[in-house]
Amino acid sequence: MPENAKPLVISAPEPRTLALIFTDDARRELHRKYEIVEIEPEALAGLAPDVLGRARYIIGQPPIDPATLDRMQSLRCVLNVETNLIDNMPYERMFERGIHVVTTGAVFAAPVAELGVALALNLARGIVDADLDFRNGRELWGGDGNTSARLLSGSDIGIIGFGDLGRALSRLLTGFRANIRVFDPWLPPSILRENAVEPVPLETVLSESDTVFVVASVTSENEGFLGAKAFASMRKGAAFILLSRAGIVDFEALMDAVRSGHIVAASDVFPEEPLAPDHPVRSLPGFLRSAHRAGALDVAFKEMGDMVLEDMDLMDRGLPPMRCKRAERETVSRMRSKPVSRN
Amino acid sequence: MPENAKPLVISAPEPRTLALIFTDDARRELHRKYEIVEIEPEALAGLAPDVLGRARYIIGQPPIDPATLDRMQSLRCVLNVETNLIDNMPYERMFERGIHVVTTGAVFAAPVAELGVALALNLARGIVDADLDFRNGRELWGGDGNTSARLLSGSDIGIIGFGDLGRALSRLLTGFRANIRVFDPWLPPSILRENAVEPVPLETVLSESDTVFVVASVTSENEGFLGAKAFASMRKGAAFILLSRAGIVDFEALMDAVRSGHIVAASDVFPEEPLAPDHPVRSLPGFLRSAHRAGALDVAFKEMGDMVLEDMDLMDRGLPPMRCKRAERETVSRMRSKPVSRN
Amino acid sequence: MPENAKPLVISAPEPRTLALIFTDDARRELHRKYEIVEIEPEALAGLAPDVLGRARYIIGQPPIDPATLDRMQSLRCVLNVETNLIDNMPYERMFERGIHVVTTGAVFAAPVAELGVALALNLARGIVDADLDFRNGRELWGGDGNTSARLLSGSDIGIIGFGDLGRALSRLLTGFRANIRVFDPWLPPSILRENAVEPVPLETVLSESDTVFVVASVTSENEGFLGAKAFASMRKGAAFILLSRAGIVDFEALMDAVRSGHIVAASDVFPEEPLAPDHPVRSLPGFLRSAHRAGALDVAFKEMGDMVLEDMDLMDRGLPPMRCKRAERETVSRMRSKPVSRN
Amino acid sequence: MPENAKPLVISAPEPRTLALIFTDDARRELHRKYEIVEIEPEALAGLAPDVLGRARYIIGQPPIDPATLDRMQSLRCVLNVETNLIDNMPYERMFERGIHVVTTGAVFAAPVAELGVALALNLARGIVDADLDFRNGRELWGGDGNTSARLLSGSDIGIIGFGDLGRALSRLLTGFRANIRVFDPWLPPSILRENAVEPVPLETVLSESDTVFVVASVTSENEGFLGAKAFASMRKGAAFILLSRAGIVDFEALMDAVRSGHIVAASDVFPEEPLAPDHPVRSLPGFLRSAHRAGALDVAFKEMGDMVLEDMDLMDRGLPPMRCKRAERETVSRMRSKPVSRN
């Protein structure tokens, strides 16, 4: 069997690398089953017609112009391992032709959800400041240190957004037997109920929760949609935990709400990253900070490679991809996340 | 019906108070159903013979001498709300007579378990130091800050002791789908299996876990039983989380193991409480400190009153207590916990 | 707002009726939100151009010829409430245009899964014959009647196919803590693992299970694929339970395997329905029969209407349908189920 | 080590046998660790003083007179493998001395609960009569055969009694996501809530359930306590499933309620066992019969031996038994179950 009898894969995973997203074993499997043409993202259009014509998959999100797409007659799927969809390829034409566009962002669901639970427990029990006090000999013992402590178990928890991350969060909380209410306008209520959470309006999530998790993606419609009024409607002392995109909230209003003592907050995302050295959130009491570290674990990146291999295997057999998340024709153009520049 | 037709309860809940352990509603219920005689613990022997003779329950753990016990012919149960059994009453004679001795320590299981999960997630994700770095403008963004980060989900978790607290911990971890192994010599293996954990020897818990939780009580047999050898047998980089009693570990050896970088640790309990201002654990990197705050939440204390009412109701109807934990004739004298002096 | 400002829905739900698949409340909602044009399936092509041009949804599976499709420029979705996809419309052209084809078959998952568990428990405990013996005064008491009885709890269970029905079955069995292994070549192994079942080859499902459930759809590739060899590879005394389509098995071979005493079996589906009065399966000992009753419960049909309303609501808002199951471009032409002629 | 250095066990397991309740491996373990003296139950008092004096455990429920008990100064536990406590030993004197009386009835919980679910599903789907109709060529296909069919999933389920069996039943039903309500006056409400069931009065269980399971033991107080009034209060068409003891119900009234068409029923227990050949329940439509076969599975009996070994191991180490169920001083004399005469 000649080498080129293997299906051809164009690899342009920037800012990831194959070494980041595949374990050694998985990368060996990739090379065993496929002919891999590694390119810089900008180099796609310049590839030889034969290579373009034979390419079955693209790993990555290189710019694709319509003319180049026309030459890629074997293309079945773009496997976007950056995970934020940007507007650099003719999606509508691809959907017409039945070319899948899939993303591997689900790998971040578990690590982000774990950090979310960690931040929630930290706010509920004041762990950071208690450790600092202990270092400085000012710790309060027993109940004296617990005047504002509370439990997650049995509490009212609100989740905004119920994609992979919201589901992972809900699953992690299983053992806490909390009362979980969810706002997600993109999902029918019955799907939320099947996942053992209660569908409610946004107002209810905000005003009747002890902890609110924001795990929704930014779209063209919800940018900055949580502002001063939203925070004011929250329970006194409730916790607001931001895990998805800073663009969803009015960050100044969030800081004001924390500064006033009305709520406490934690965030893994910020309006600018990295953040200015003198940004006031750095010294804001009642605000717990994480520098966009929620998802970027090596084990998460490595899972991407496994997902890519599983879905290419299905498509090799004439089946649709099932493991990665498919971009939807209706919503692909509404997504507004900035692509990442670092892993 | 005369006032004294109500069953008589002697109340000596020190160091707790009735106000601490009963909600207002529960306390009203207590007074509605029972005649309450509130005393200082030392005053029991001096009570009028009629009061002693009529007393059906004692709430608290006052010293009881054999002669006084003989005069308490209606006594059915001592409801110990301090929760550590001390050797100040003739237990054997009480067991002979069928007088129950029960404790309300189960109320601490949920809050301590939540703190345990919080400490484990903190160690796994370096949350305290990351927030401090952020305050000081030294934060590392994304994957750069995650070089030692890991997940609890799917990890190997070891638990030493599987009483109420171990079970609560195991339940909280349900959604993390971890591989939980337990050492508890006081329980038959089949009970552990029924609780969906794997019974293993102590050595396995120590050497094959990413996170080890110690939730066993101190007994006359296990004082200081986890020392340098135990810590050396742990996986490099594993987390050791101490939630029950400092007496179980050789604390110096634990600090050494952390200092050497072999393991990381967190503890809610310390050899002396409060701890000396210059104790080296205060500044030990890799060690997360909590000042015996794990269980002492108001909601936990208030649950004690509910438990007391539920079990007295069962005993009023000639049934055995089911809600509080009964002291066991075989083990009551082995328990070594120091009584608490604060709530 | 004029009446025709409502989105237009063409209703041709045969063999269902709107009264069957909508509750009274849901049907009122349907008429409140949509203009409904009810037609016989064959009448679609003859509808006025204005009606075709305005139609946003079709409820049902009427034949659609390419020319008619071209005139339906507002069409967003065909909601197939019969649930078996037949080859009577230009699917490929519909997919090009982004018209969804969805089915409501998920409503049958829960009732079929319950019947599956019922049949499995019946075979494990011999309930039918025990009741018959009791009627006839020949019952065996206690252990005497249990010589071939066994438990589902903790047993080895194999499932062939892991769509909605396989998942429902697996979920119902949660409390039985069985060892569930699944063969489904259309799904990547990691999705099976995420659902807490073990992915295995078909041979393992057959040869290492105490109970085998067949819940796969018939495709052009698997017709009659379970035959004498498959049954011979099963454990002696194991149970074979057929819930999806008779076409998947060689029915004669299945009866032979039961007749020989090697396995026991239950089936809800048969090679011809209704079945000939003299078909030998009617009197075959060790075979439990159900006359295609597994899914056809009124509550299941009524759920279809709710699904239709939820997905039309999403699509009205420019979102993709999430509740019904979408036909896949890759597999729509492989499905071989005969349409039903009765409800 | 001389033979008699092994702890001595008196074995009188009638009507069980050691071969019934121990696997071969477990029996070898029993003989390896213990000196076994096998006797007829009536022979206990006649044993040599040395044997009585050294006996640490009794496996079985032989009559013990006070004088014999006085001679058994090493006795720690009677392990009753018949599982019904009868009044043939001085329980009060045994409790005074701290001698445990434990039963192994928990082994029946899983098999009885599985039969309970099986009977409930049979009544909900009419499986027995549908199979009989099929045999006779009278089967109704599809929805025609489902006019009275209903689902357990999401239905209202009531359980009377929440011991080992009630808990097993509740656990098996986990995946059905039913609304489970429990009446058990011997347990505090909070324990029911912790088990994720709702504590309610008996009246609520009866009148607001689609299926009622009776799994309570007979006591001196509840004999015949479910009669015509109870059945009349049930929902029209609801199912009544009797799994524990016939003594709890007025059996004639139950048959009347079924005969009238108000409810359907299933029972594993009967007023006399075996039952008269002409008993009317044999031919009563709407009544599903099982001849006390629910628990008597070989795997259940074999588990008894494991329990006995585990608890003797704990007691050998000075710990209390944890695996078997301890008889309670308060309730031992209230139990009314007839001992079994067969396995």
Automatic annotation (TrEMBL), chains A, B, C, D:
Gene Ontology annotations for the cellular component aspect, listed alphabetically: cytosol
Swiss-Prot/TrEMBL keywords: NAD, Oxidoreductase
Coiled coil: none
Domain D-isomer specific 2-hydroxyacid dehydrogenase NAD-binding: residue ranges: 117-294
InterPro entries reported for this sequence: D-isomer_2-hydroxyacid_DH, D-isomer_DH_NAD-bd, NAD(P)-bd_dom_sf
Pfam families: 2-Hacid_dh_C (PF02826)
Keyword presence, Ion transport: no
Molecular function as annotated in GO: glyoxylate reductase (NADPH) activity; hydroxypyruvate reductase [NAD(P)H] activity; NAD binding
Name of the molecule in the record: Hydroxyacid dehydrogenase
